[in-house]
Amino acid sequence: MPDPVTQSVPVVVVGAGPTGVTAATLLADHGVPTLVLDRWESVYPQPRAVHLDDEIHRILARLGVAEEFAAISRPALGLRLLDQNHHTLAQFDRDPARSRHGFPQANMFDQPELEQLLRANLATRPNVQLHGNSEVTGVTQHEPGRVRVTYSDRATGTEHVVETSYVLGCDGANSIVRASIGAAMDDLRFEQRWLVADVVTEAELNQWDGVHQVCDPVRAATYMRIGPDRYRWEFRLRPSETAADFSTMATLRALVAPWIGDVADAELDLVRVTEYTFRAQIADSWRDRNVFVLGDAAHLTPPFIGQGMGAGLRDAINLAWKVAGVINGELPEAVLATYQQERKPHARSMIGLALAMGWAMTAGGHVGNLVRRTVAPRLRLIPGLRDKLTHGATPSLHASALVSKSRRPHHLAGTLCPNPVLADGRRLDMLLGNSFALVTTTRPLAFQCAALAEQGIVVHVAAPGSELERWLRRGHATAAVVRPDRTVMSAGRDGWSLCAAIPGFTLSARTHSTHPTIQTN
Length: 521
Known about the structure:
With 521 residues, the protein is α+β, with helices and mostly antiparallel strands. 30% of the residues lie in helices and 26% in strands.
């Protein structure tokens, strides 16, 4: 066996799925050289995730692929709940036009196409290397602040060793990185076997262009149009059934009949039929010193609300800027503790919502059907629930050193800042870049602007009557500090004091001596 080839790089990302590639791209955009290791040579070719919301589309825009993703995705109209006879129980419409984040609220896509897009985009970053066919065999923290990653080239058998400062484990449900930190998955006591079928046809099915959820304890089902000629069905399997029982259009037809009408089997190309076991799990620990887990390595979400893949991208954008800030000397190492503090409760909340939807679809037998017929049509009358189902905003992040919660109602801290079009035609995200920002209705004093600029903090003054001004007013604030991931760190009426709480913020002696009296807004 040849001697290991040793190299050194600031960050190693294990896993080149959507979460890993997103994390590596964000790190590269913060100037951090990164090595990505993936077991497979290329993108897994079979369709898996098919939905992401406007918050995740906004992350894709941060990566620089918004237009390319729009070209391969299809906005969906929302969610329709059906009974076992396919009568509509309730419908929750989503706007296919742009939302407060700048993108459609629901987007359908083919995961292999998205992954190819993300990898092509990653290849434009010169400070990132992606090595496929690389089997990670060990992750050890052998001295403070240093991690050793061993991996083998699956094609040649060559063993390699990489020395790094940080490891991000994006290596899926069977994560070797999670095992290396001694973390275990807490089982949230949900497990169901489902059949997933993907079909291509040029025939028009004449169905409502949103997601159909059939709420039936005997045969719960989901139907989605993915693209111009792509469709997906998911059916809960009975104990005696397997995917092999539905391997042809002839055997699958009885299940999909309510949607395809008299379209002939010959017009339907069955791309894939497979069985998935839907589980709900969350890791008890997401970090050990300089090793972190993200995506499916940290949590498994049943697909009933289409948030599984999106949760991984939320992990990536939450963590990448923090790791980069520590590496670049801009943030104290202590901020890395906020990753699990913020993301784990959020992920658990989204898993809970998915479980609630799964229960609504499958529970209760005949009594459950009666409850659904009674309750579902009234769900839209409950304002909080109606907003969650129609607008899709996810929960705010829990308090941390980077989220200063207020006791006031409608507080902004922990939520995402809107992304409106500004007067110059750009969206806010384009202006803010990768920096902390102060969004305010009152322009800071000249010396304050100079001090903020010296710290790399972008200042945006919201015009009267603008979307941002109205957003601040609804949050009982005139100023908000926005983090690089667009989460609001804090909000209130004194923007200067809010900025002073940003980690690493200092007032230079030169600025202070020139302006000994600090006036607040």
